[in-house]
Design brief:
The chain has 672 residues and is α+β, with helices and mostly antiparallel strands. The chain has helices at 2-27, 296-316, 335-341, 384-396, 427-433, 442-461, 518-521, 526-542, 557-566, 584-597, 608-615, 644-659, and strands at residues 30-33, 42-45, 48-49, 55-59, 65-69, 74-75, 82-92, 101-107, 137-142, 156-161, 168-171, 173-175, 182-184, 193-200, 205-212, 223-226, 236-244, 250-261, 350-354, 357-363, 370-377, 405-411, 414-420, 477-479, 485-487. Helix 6 (442-461) runs antiparallel to helix 8, helix 6 (442-461) runs antiparallel to helix 11 (608-615) and helix 8 runs antiparallel to helix 10 (584-597). The radius of gyration is 30 Å and the shape is globular. The structure holds 2-acetamido-2-deoxy-beta-D-glucopyranose (NAG) (9 copies). One 2-acetamido-2-deoxy-beta-D-glucopyranose binds next to helix 1. The site of one 2-acetamido-2-deoxy-beta-D-glucopyranose has 7 residues, from strand 14 and strand 15.
């Protein structure tokens, strides 16, 4: 009997001791991984531990994400501190391009459900971004400029609390010790770098420090801010990493990681870190040197035939390269490479033809990257230099709603443009060729419209130089693997601006999307793009081409929708294939906005920035009158140009209208 009591007591004591021990441990939790060989991590998405112990968050795949967390939650009391350091590397297939980045994360869960790829870094999505109920703290290593989150550049470190709009961000770099000032670092260099995140809870100080590997921790942090994290974190949180890729093949690695609560993280042992896989082209196999004179003659014979073949191949793969192009080296593809990628531009690889040329699918031999290659015939050298400069500069920019241009190649009379391959094809194919079952539902359509608006706004305002697209239409909207609408072919029309015959104004674009003033001026502007976008909005909502020759009475979509609006039956114009399933307010917004964008008077159209605000419901679309759509119409007969008086009238009225959110401004009716 006493034995049992004794045992029970012992058990209780042990239990208490155990409880006490776990409590003590949780006050001072720490762990260290010098390489992740055999580590027990909670992984999801593409994240995996490679055979040599690298934690690879993403493995080259486009538009994907990966998460890796320490498997047990950590306990943060109200005035917690923590310290962490890790070594990472971002390895991209292209020297100057990467996407999208890595974030160190404290999160209530290990899978960040619903999070999106690309600029969302696998952390948030468009609905929960910025919501304080996320309880997510992150330090992002971001390699893309996402203007919607106010990013400072395409190579920065940012402190994120529940939102991708960083609390603070700085260009990647470090203050080297001994007063050598600030040094830049390129996150996508492929070289390992070390990051420290130190948070002092009682003093609410957060330091973030970056440095190249092997340098000691810089004394001056990259960022040192005062922030109270106690409200944004929960008692129990997981620590780990999140990463996402965009449209460029990029791998994100963590080589080692150390973490401690309420103390300084133990230093990593650099000598024990796993090594990164070799990057860059494989070394060419050495040619065997044969020193035997006996077979010299054989060699000579072979050489002769090689010269013959080489000459033939030279001609086959001949390119045009001028001095001014040298600086575009990284964006220049060799014709041979493209020829191999498309298996000699086989018919079977043809994705489509039309517009400016034929488009082929290809797989680049060097990195197995899927691409779309557009062959544009172009005889005139006029404007080519400008055009290439423009496409290369745009190619450097990345936006989720623009088809990424990877580079180009020039041959005699021909330009080849290499784009990212979009797995879901073009929007018009789905709109018109898809069966009722696999058509896009309203939310997908609305998302695509917003995406295209955002891409177009980016071309108009997002970069130091304005880019007019000139050919916005559903067949130029491509859908990526995530069903994001992306604008393709930007600026291509520009090449054809100078018609071969200066007597004829060669209007470029597509019937039905062309703003009326184009027939007079022939000049693409942001307003002509807005007109095309308006036609596009109506097209996607109604599931009808802007000009439908089969509809004799209502050939013109804009007129047809306008007519229905006047009769109060605008909702009847919505695509029947939606089966009546849509959000009425959104449909009405889209139809009215489409009409407004397709206004005959250029100055009466909103800007893309305003369009975006309307679509995002940031600004309510003013309740403009139907008469407003008539402004300018009487002068439009046969399109002889605008009456100057009328133009200025429309402009001032438009401004009045745009600034009056309350009252309906009626124009021709004289203010009613
Ligand atoms: C939180 O933990 C630290 C370290 O263990 C301790 O010093 C502090 O008193 C704790 N704070 C509270 C409010 O429990
Ligand atoms: C917590 O970590 C610090 C720093 O390594 C150490 O000095 C201290 O003894 C630890 N405290 C506990 C309770 O383990
Ligand atoms: C990994 O950690 C989790 C959580 O602590 C645990 O449930 C699991 O058994 C561990 N797995 C291995 C292989 O150690
Ligand atoms: C990347 O990871 C995914 C999922 O683990 C796998 O299916 C795919 O084959 C991997 N790709 C490469 C290139 O390793
Ligand atoms: C965003 O994520 C939240 C949860 O994290 C989820 O409930 C929501 O459905 C997601 N939204 C979208 C549009 O995916
Ligand atoms: C934040 O998220 C919570 C839970 O998902 C939701 O109830 C709330 O409406 C969201 N708040 C905002 C402003 O979106
Ligand atoms: C660092 O990069 C910025 C932005 O690219 C540039 O303006 C600055 O001159 C660079 N500084 C150094 C020291 O290279
Ligand atoms: C942050 O950096 C400053 C030096 O700039 C240092 O005085 C402070 O102790 C650091 N705080 C933490 C929490 O590391
Ligand atoms: C945290 O909560 C406290 C009390 O609820 C409040 O006074 C403080 O301003 C909050 N801090 C932040 C950063 O939200």
């Amino acid at each position: 009997m006493p034995g049992i009591v004794h045992n029970t007591l012992l058990c209780l004591l042990l239990l208490l001791l155990l409880l006490f021990k776990t409590k003590a441990a949780s006050d001072n939790e720490s762990f260290i991984f010098n390489g992740f060989q055999g580590a027990n991590m909670s992984l999801n998405g593409l994240a995996e531990i490679t055979s040599n112990g690298l934690l690879r968050l993403t493995n080259n795949t486009k538009q994907q994400k990966g998460h890796a967390f320490y498997p047990t939650p950590l306990h943060f009391n109200t005035s917690f501190s923590f310290s962490t350091t890790f070594i990472f590397a971002i390895v991209s297939e292209y020297a100057n391009l990467g996407a999208h980045g890595i974030a160190f994360v404290l999160s209530p869960n290990t899978d960040l459900p619903g999070s999106r790829v690309s600029q969302y870094l696998g952390l948030f999505n468009e609905t929960n971004n910025g919501n304080s109920s996320n309880h997510v703290f992150a330090v992002e290593l971001d390699t893309i400029l996402s203007s919607e989150f106010g990013d400072i550049d395409d190579n920065h470190v940012g402190i994120d609390v529940n939102s991708l709009r960083s609390v603070n961000a700085q260009p990647a770099g470090y203050f080297s010790d001994g007063n050598h000032g600030f040094r830049n670092l390129s996150l996508i260099s492929g070289h390992p770098m070390q990051l420290w995140v130190d948070y002092d809870g009682p003093n609410m100080k957060l330091n973030v420090t970056l440095s190249p590997i092997k340098a000691s921790k810089p004394v001056v942090p990259l960022m040192s801010i005062t922030i109270d994290l106690s409200n944004s974190t929960l008692d129990s949180m997981y620590a780990g990493f999140s990463s996402s890729t965009g449209s460029v093949f990029t791998s994100h690695y963590i080589l080692g990681w150390s973490f401690r609560i309420n103390g300084r993280a133990q230093d990593l042992d650099l000598s024990h870190l796993p090594s990164l896989p070799r990057v860059g082209p494989k070394e060419k196999p050495k040619v065997l040197t044969v020193g035997l004179p006996v077979i010299l003659s054989v060699v000579a014979l072979t050489a002769a035939s090689i010269v013959g073949v080489t000459l033939w191949r030279r001609r086959k793969f001949v390119e045009v390269m001028e001095d001014w192009e040298l600086k575009y080296g990284p964006h220049r593809f060799s014709y041979k490479e493209l020829y191999t990628a498309t298996r000699g531009f086989r018919e079977r690889e043809l994705l489509g033809a039309g517009g400016f040329g034929r488009v082929y699918k290809g797989v680049l031999p060097k990195n197995k990257c899927e691409v779309a290659i557009k062959r544009v015939s172009h005889e005139s050298r006029q404007g080519m230099r400008e055009f290439v400069a423009e496409i290369v500069s745009i190619g450097r920019l990345r936006h989720r709603n623009i088809v990424q241009l990877l580079g180009y190649c020039r041959r005699k009379g021909e330009l080849l443009l290499v784009y990212d391959y979009m797995s879901n094809g073009s929007l018009d194919k789905i709109l018109y060729e898809g069966t009722k079952k696999d058509t896009l539902d309203w939310s997908q359509r609305f998302r695509i419209m917003k995406g295209v608006a955002s891409g177009l706004l980016y071309l108009h305002e997002g970069w130091e130089q304005l880019v007019v697209h000139r050919d916005v239409k559903s067949s130029n909207v491509l859908l990526d693997g995530d069903m994001n609408g992306r604008l393709g072919d930007f600026g291509l029309a520009r090449l054809y601006d100078h018609g071969t015959d200066p007597q004829t104004t060669h209007v470029v674009g597509t019937l039905g999307y062309l703003a009326p003033e184009l027939s007079k001026t022939g000049k693409g502007t942001t307003a002509t793009d807005v007109f095309s976008f308006g036609a596009f909005l109506l097209e996607v909502a109604c599931g009808r081409r802007p000009i439908d020759l089969r509809e004799e009475e209502h050939m013109n979509l804009v007129d047809w929708v306008l007519d229905h609006w006047r009769r109060g039956t605008v909702i009847e114009t919505v695509d029947e294939r939606l089966g009546g399933e849509y959000v009425v307010e959104e449909v009405e917004l889209v139809l009215k906005l489409g009409l407004l964008c397709a206004h005959v008077v250029p100055s009466a159209r909103p800007s893309m920035r305003q369009v975006m605000q309307f679509l995002d419901h940031d600004v309510e679309l003013p309740d403009f009158s139907q008469d407003y759509m008539n402004v300018g119409i009487p002068q439009m007969e046969g399109y002889h140009g605008f009456d100057d008086f009328f133009m200025s009238y429309a402009t001032s009225s438009y401004q009045k209208f745009m600034h009056s959110s309350t009252a309906e401004v009626s124009l021709l009716s004289g203010g009613r």
